[in-house]
């Protein structure tokens, strides 16, 4: 009894000592007040071949409006938008530039909420593997950050203003999440660079200039086309039509509106894409490697300017579906022409499909894939379904005689 | 108790009077009334304020002073037969007399009689039965225990009428000589449990017991634990329900608070109303309570940990708005949290202690000062105020007041740990508390009983509140005398069909 | 008997589950991925054979010496001197194992969450809590496991469910591309984890229903197998060949998780759940070391040994390896053979000897 009696206070005293010793440390404690939250980062290459790291930083004080002194230096950032400002530093690699950047700021830079990473065209063309290394190795940056390539300088994208969203990084993130265009996360990019095809594809950003000089803050950027990477270097881009084809092939189209012309130019039917799935079936017959692409889509009619009666005419629906198949085929063909024949880069992961289906043949052909890929025959089997004609069909009330023509 | 000759009631009236006066020297509240009973002399002794004087006059003094009463007093047993008093028993020793006297009885001594008599005419000012203030409910009986022991036992007896409910008396405290009652239902409470409780109460050697808290502190299993191991209630229905589960209750004279043992953490988290309301609501409320139990313990620490260590865990827009509100706060999050929690505790304590009229003023001042002024002065951030408020509300959701206090106390060390190591420290603190809870026992019953050690059948009263007809078995505490509460097939099944539509 | 408490067979199974899993879930996927490639998800199934074998050996030995732990029947089988010597090797191996575990834990926490905190503090705090738990005895450990483990498992499986939308089945294919050899080689390392089931021999004597020990031992191995399979598969399906580039693939997988915009970046939650597992793991080994040492020395109580053994384990954790790479190297090369010898081969020999001698409990 007595022994236990003094042992307990002793243990408590020991705990107390440990606790107070521990409190003197608080090694990793960082208050939010001491953080500079990075919302987005841009990576550029200047003329001398050095790396420029630009970060967009959230200004916590700015929210109330007024008051806060605005950083107005023209060279290093400053946007009219009160919420964020951007800052650029030059260095040998990201870590180096980052340390320079940190040296200029009073608060600790924090990557944990950087959801957007933009590569400038020049940086992308000179290779991105070294940058990816930092972004995956350091514990703070997120694997789920979205990655883009911008036409021209990437820092320009971050310096834009945002009207609808909190900041431009948020604009890009929301656009990627809507899945209307290609969205690639950092982890997906890293996976693309390490898989069989050794190629990657990233969404390409274009800046639309402001309509007038007075409305400076209305310039915006949007995803327009794709940047295609061979190994880790960007070798070219596609326009937005071909980009759509690439999305069909990569099974990444989840939403969208397709407009087709079933009765010739002049009138059209627009369809809303509800669901789409693409299956790639590789076949090896003798020396010909072939890829069968099966695409199934489900759609609703959205607008009809033709004279077809979609509500009651089954034949008309078939016609629209056939036309939609043709439209898909043409988009994919464009993509194939640009990527498979033009750039000769396997961004559709055909390599992986062959590897999985024919592991033995793949092992032999692996080293010669770059020569093999442009010659892979692609057969398209689109299968569009129109599920519903929409709520009402005003067109069907057009007098019959007009129909008769 | 010495039984030497001097202690015995003497046939001589003088000797008895002197003995009593000697014991109660300088006790102004003890009254002696000498009178003549025919030829014989007699006296009554009583304590002022504890005796019903009217009855003493009408039913004792009046018949005794009448002619002929003296004859009845000749044979010692005959005296009560002429007194219209229900409780009139002989006393053989002065010591016995003293204990009856201090209990409110009137002592009657007649010259020449070898024994005195104790007449139970006790009556003192007592509080009437009221609704218990600390445990209010919406549906259920509104009566609560009072400070008077026999009122309390009567309330229990009215609920459990079977003679199987036993009430065993003890007298504890050398000076207070407080009456302590051990109540149990024979056949439901395990023999070993009753033996253990009897032994623990008998072992108590103390000068005085003023509240059941004294008993609790002297019989609990681990006195160094922050958690209460014995449930306290002032509701007779809660005590009755516990008795029916095979627990025992300890009633202490002079306090409405009754001890129930053994009790588990889960019994502390149950309100009687869980059983009175429909079972689905009972289940939901229970889960709400479990959730807020955790919130009381960890919410401020979690806030501190996330805000100083794991900034990435907060969704971006939320972090940005927290960053905005924290921008002008001069304190680190830990200090801010400590400041707020301590002032909240002070406010709560002040609210309890102050007279009711001032209490309202305190809460207004507290709400204004802490809620409004502190945030607008930029001393404390608004999210922090919210965290503290939620924690405060959560701590009041726990029905057992002492358990709530334990949690409120433990959240401070966890806050320090969270301030040192973030979530890691928080988890280490929680793990240490879980180990401690696992090591606790309440009169031999593991504190986390149906969960660890796992007792699948008893989960029906912990994870859910099963419908009454489904609760067929009693919780198994130390032994199991009578496992079944009711026969199967009690689920109501009204006949269907043939209804006039 | 030093230990007076009793635990149920379920509690034993619950204690063993994180004892194997908590460190295995962290580093094993990356280590096996190097050897087995995309077939790494098969490796837990192959290596669990060792787990079943170890449980079987322990239970057979337990049946011969129903009241004795591993340390005690070493002596009963091998005789006073040889037995004591074997027991001492076991005790040192437990301390070493504990040191390695603590180091893995420290490396993980300091490498990912508390970058600036000195590792010794992180380890010390865990050891302090563990020491408190071990002091309270086996019964309390069993109960604590019953409360903590379901919660932690729930968190882990919840994370796996959230990962589902990001998984791609194609990463698994082609199965057995390079024949069965890579997965076989890859399963050697996880074997050393499964062989830690030898720890049941410190719990079997204290079971309230000793005949259920074997059954629940097997159930525990199966549970570990399923959990490890689920974790390996989810990592593989999430990242594919990229998995081998990560130090802690499961951590990266959890970092990648996102649900409805607000449940993002929840790796700290993983750390919390994992800490529970780590705690149980350290406590089980700590308990075995303390109890075994007390039995070896013939002490009436193991509690005085807790603090010195804790300090020794902390020292071992510092000496174990100079840096993380070296630690990974040890885990991948030396430890499997060491563990398999100590925890499978030696008990098998003990059982064989006991069978030959016809030895029964005295």
CATH topology of chain C: Amino acid/polyamine transporter I
Ends apart, CA distance between termini of chain C? 14 Å
Strand arrangement in the largest pleated sheet of chain C: 1-2
> Quick one: biggest sheet of chain B?
5 strands, antiparallel
* Order of strands in the sheet with most strands of chain B: 1-2-4-5-3
- The CATH architecture category of chain C equals Up-down Bundle
Low-confidence stretches of chain C: none
Give helix and strand order of chain C, one letter per element, not per position: HHHHHHHHHHEEHHH
- Tally of helical runs of chain C: 13
Largest interface, Cβ cutoff 8 Å: B-C, 27 and 35 residues
Strand-pairing-aware structural class of chain B = alpha+beta
Instruction: Quote the average pLDDT of chain B.
Output: 85
**Rg of chain B computed from alpha carbons, rounded to a whole number of angstroms:** 30 Å
* Top-tier CATH class of chain C: Mainly Alpha
Question: Mean pLDDT of chain C, rounded to whole units?
Answer: 85
> What percent strand of chain B?
5-15%
Distance between the termini of chain B: 79 Å
Any overview of this molecule?
Chain A has helices at 2-25, 94-104, 121-125, 129-137, 154-159, 168-177, 186-194, 240-250, 314-343, 350-357, 359-365, 369-372, 400-404; strands spanning 35-45, 51-58, 84-91, 108-110, 116-120, 146-150, 199-208, 220-230, 233-238, 256-260, 269-285, 288-304, 377-388. Chain A is of the alpha/beta class and 405 residues long. Chain A has two domains: 32-238, no CATH class; 240-405, Nutrient germinant receptor protein C, domain 3 (GMP Synthetase, Chain A, domain 3), CATH 3.30.300. In chain A, helix 4 packs across helix 7 and helix 8 (240-250) packs across helix 9. The longest helix of chain A has 30 residues, at 314-343. Chain A starts with a helix and ends with a helix. Chain B is α+β, with helices and mostly antiparallel strands and 501 residues long. Chain B has 18 helices and twelve strands. In chain B, the strands form three sheets. Chain B has a five-stranded antiparallel beta sheet with strand order 1-2-4-5-3, sandwiched between helices. In chain B, strands 6-7-9-10-8 form a five-stranded antiparallel beta sheet, with helices on both faces. The longest helix of chain B has 30 residues, at 279-308. In chain C, strands 1-2 form a two-stranded antiparallel ribbon. The model of chain C has no long low-confidence stretch (mean pLDDT 85). Chain C has helices at residues 9-36, 43-64, 70-78, 80-112, 119-136, 138-163, 181-186, 188-194, 213-239, 249-256, 267-297, 306-319, 324-357; strands at residues 258-259, 263-264. Chain C: One of its GO terms (biological process) is spore germination. Chain C: The chain crosses the membrane at residues 41-59, 80-102, 108-134, 146-164, 184-204, 216-239, 271-293, 305-325, 337-356. Chain C: It holds the Pfam family Spore_permease.
């Amino acid at each position: 009894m007595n022994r236990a009696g003094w042992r307990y206070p002793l243990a408590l005293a020991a705990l107390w000592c440990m606790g107070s010793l521990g409190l003197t440390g608080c090694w990793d404690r960082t208050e939010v007040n001491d953080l500079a939250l990075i919302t987005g980062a841009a990576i550029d290459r200047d003329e001398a071949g050095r790396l420029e790291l630009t970060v967009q930083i959230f200004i916590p004080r700015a929210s109330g409006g007024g008051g806060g002194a605005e950083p107005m230096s023209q060279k290093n950032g400053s946007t009219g938008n009160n919420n964020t400002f951007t800052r650029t530093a030059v260095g040998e690699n990201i870590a180096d530039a980052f340390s320079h950047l940190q040296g200029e700021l009073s608060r600790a830079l924090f990557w944990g909420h950087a959801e957007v990473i933009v590569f400038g065209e020049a940086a992308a063309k000179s290779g991105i593997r070294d940058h990816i290394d930092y972004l995956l190795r350091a514990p703070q940056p997120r694997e789920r950050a979205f990655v883009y390539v911008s036409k021209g300088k990437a820092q320009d994208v971050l310096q834009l203003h945002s009207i609808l969203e909190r900041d431009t990084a948020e604009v890009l993130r929301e656009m990627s999440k809507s899945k209307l265009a290609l969205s690639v996360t950092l982890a997906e990019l890293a996976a693309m660079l390490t898989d069989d095809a050794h190629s990657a594809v990233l969404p390409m950003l274009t800046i639309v200039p402001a309509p007038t000089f007075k409305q400076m803050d209305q310039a915006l950027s949007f995803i327009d086309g794709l940047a295609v990477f061979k190994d880790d270097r960007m070798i070219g881009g596609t326009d937005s039509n071909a980009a759509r084809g690439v999305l069909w092939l990569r099974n990444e189209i989840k939403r969208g509106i397709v407009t087709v012309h079933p009765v010739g130019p002049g009138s059209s039917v627009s369809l809303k894409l509800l669901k789409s799935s693409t299956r790639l079936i590789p076949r090896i017959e003798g020396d010909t490697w072939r890829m069968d692409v099966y695409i199934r889509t489900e759609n609703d009619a959205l607008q009809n300017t033709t004279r077809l009666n979609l509500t009651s005419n089954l034949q008309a629906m078939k016609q629209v579906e056939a036309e939609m198949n043709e439209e898909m085929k043409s988009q994919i063909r464009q993509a194939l022409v640009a990527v498979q024949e033009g750039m000769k880069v396997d961004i559709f992961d055909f390599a992986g499909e062959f590897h999985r289906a024919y592991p033995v043949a793949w092992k032999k052909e692996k080293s010669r894939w770059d020569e093999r890929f442009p010659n892979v025959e692609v057969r398209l089997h689109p299968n569009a379904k129109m599920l519903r004609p929409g709520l009402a069909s005003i067109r069907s009330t057009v007098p019959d005689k007009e129909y008769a023509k | 108790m010495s039984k030497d000759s001097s202690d015995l009631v003497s046939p001589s009236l003088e000797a008895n009077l002197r003995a009593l006066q000697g014991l109660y020297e300088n006790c102004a509240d003890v009254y002696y009334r000498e009178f003549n009973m025919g030829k014989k002399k007699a006296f009554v002794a009583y304590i002022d304020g504890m005796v019903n004087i009217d009855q003493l006059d009408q039913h004792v003094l009046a018949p005794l002073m009448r002619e002929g009463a003296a004859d009845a007093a000749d044979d010692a047993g005959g005296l009560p037969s002429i007194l219209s008093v229900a409780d009139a028993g002989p006393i053989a020793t002065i010591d016995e007399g003293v204990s009856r006297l201090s209990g409110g009885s009137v002592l009657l001594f007649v010259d020449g009689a070898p024994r005195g008599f104790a007449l139970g005419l006790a009556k003192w000012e007592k509080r009437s039965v009221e609704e218990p203030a600390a445990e209010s409910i919406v549906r259920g009986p509104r009566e609560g225990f009072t400070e008077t022991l026999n009122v309390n036992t009567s309330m229990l007896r009215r609920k459990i009428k079977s003679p199987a409910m036993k009430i065993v008396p003890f007298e504890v405290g050398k000076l207070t000589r407080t009456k302590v009652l051990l109540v149990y239902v024979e056949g439901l409470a395990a023999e070993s449990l009753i033996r253990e409780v009897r032994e623990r109460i008998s072992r108590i050697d103390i000068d005085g017991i003023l509240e059941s808290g004294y008993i609790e502190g002297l019989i609990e299993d681990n006195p160094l634990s922050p958690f209460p191991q014995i449930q306290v209630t002032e509701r007779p229905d809660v005590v009755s329900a516990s008795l029916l589960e095979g627990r025992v209750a300890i009633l202490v004279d002079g306090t409405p608070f009754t001890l129930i043992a053994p009790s588990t953490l889960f019994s502390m988290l149950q309100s009687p109303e869980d059983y009175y309301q429909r079972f689905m609501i009972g289940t939901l409320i229970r889960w709400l309570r479990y959730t807020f139990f955790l919130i009381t313990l960890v919410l401020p620490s979690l806030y501190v940990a996330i805000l100083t260590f794991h900034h990435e865990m907060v969704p971006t827009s939320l972090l940005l708005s927290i960053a905005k509100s924290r921008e002008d706060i001069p304190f680190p999050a830990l200090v801010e949290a400590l400041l707020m929690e301590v002032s909240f505790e002070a406010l709560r304590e002040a609210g309890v202690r102050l007279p009711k009229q001032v209490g309202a003023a305190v809460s207004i001042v507290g709400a204004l000062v802490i809620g409004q002024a502190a945030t607008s002065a930029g001393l404390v951030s608004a999210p922090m105020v919210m965290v503290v408020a939620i924690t405060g509300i959560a701590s009041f959701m726990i029905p057992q007041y002492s358990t709530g206090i334990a949690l409120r106390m433990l959240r401070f060390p966890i806050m320090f740990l969270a301030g040192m190591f973030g979530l890691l420290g928080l988890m280490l603190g929680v793990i240490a508390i879980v180990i401690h809870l696992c090591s606790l026992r309440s009169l031999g019953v593991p504190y986390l009983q149906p969960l660890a050690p796992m007792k699948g059948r008893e989960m029906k009263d912990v994870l859910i509140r099963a419908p009454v007809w489904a609760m067929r078995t009693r919780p198994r505490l130390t032994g199991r005398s009578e496992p079944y509460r009711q026969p199967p097939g009690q689920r109501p099944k009204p006949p269907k069909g043939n209804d006039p539509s | 008997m030093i230990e007076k408490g009793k635990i149920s067979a379920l509690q034993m199974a619950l204690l063993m589950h994180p004892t194997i899993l908590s460190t295995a879930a962290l580093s094993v996927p990356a280590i096996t991925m190097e050897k087995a490639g995309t077939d790494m998800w098969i490796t837990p199934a192959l290596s669990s054979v060792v787990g079943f074998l170890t449980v079987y050996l322990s239970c057979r030995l337990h049946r011969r010496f129903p009241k004795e732990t591993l340390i005690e029947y070493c002596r009963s089988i091998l005789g006073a001197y040889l037995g004591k010597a074997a027991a001492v090797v076991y005790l040192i191996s437990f301390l070493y194992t504990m040191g390695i575990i603590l180091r893995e834990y420290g490396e993980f926490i300091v490498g990912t969450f508390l970058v600036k905190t000195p590792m010794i503090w992180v380890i010390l705090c865990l050891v302090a809590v563990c020491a408190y738990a071990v002091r309270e005895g086996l019964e309390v450990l069993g109960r604590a496991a019953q409360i903590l483990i379901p919660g932690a498992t729930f968190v882990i499986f919840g994370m796996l469910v959230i990962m589902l939308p990001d998984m791609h089945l194609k990463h698994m294919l082609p199965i057995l591309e390079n024949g069965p050899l890579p997965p076989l080689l890859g399963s050697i390392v996880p074997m050393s984890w499964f062989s830690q089931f030898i720890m049941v021999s410190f719990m079997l004597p204290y079971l309230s229903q000793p005949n259920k020990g074997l059954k629940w031992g097997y159930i525990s191995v199966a549970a570990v197998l399923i959990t490890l399979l689920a974790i390996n598969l989810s990592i593989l399906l999430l990242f594919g060949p990229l998995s081998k580039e990560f130090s802690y693939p499961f951590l990266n997988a959890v970092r990648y998780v996102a649900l409805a915009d607000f449940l993002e970046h929840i790796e700290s939650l993983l750390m919390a759940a994992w800490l529970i597992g780590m705690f149980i793991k350290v406590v089980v080994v700590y308990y075995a070391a303390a109890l075994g040492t007390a039995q070896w020395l013939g002490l009436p109580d193991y509690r005085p040994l807790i603090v010195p053994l804790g300090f020794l384990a902390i020292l071992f954790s510092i000496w174990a390896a100079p840096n993380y790479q070296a630690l990974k190297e040890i885990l991948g090369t030396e430890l499997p053979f060491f563990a398999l010898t100590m925890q499978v081969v030696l008990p098998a020999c003990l059982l064989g000897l006991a069978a030959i001698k016809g030895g029964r409990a005295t």
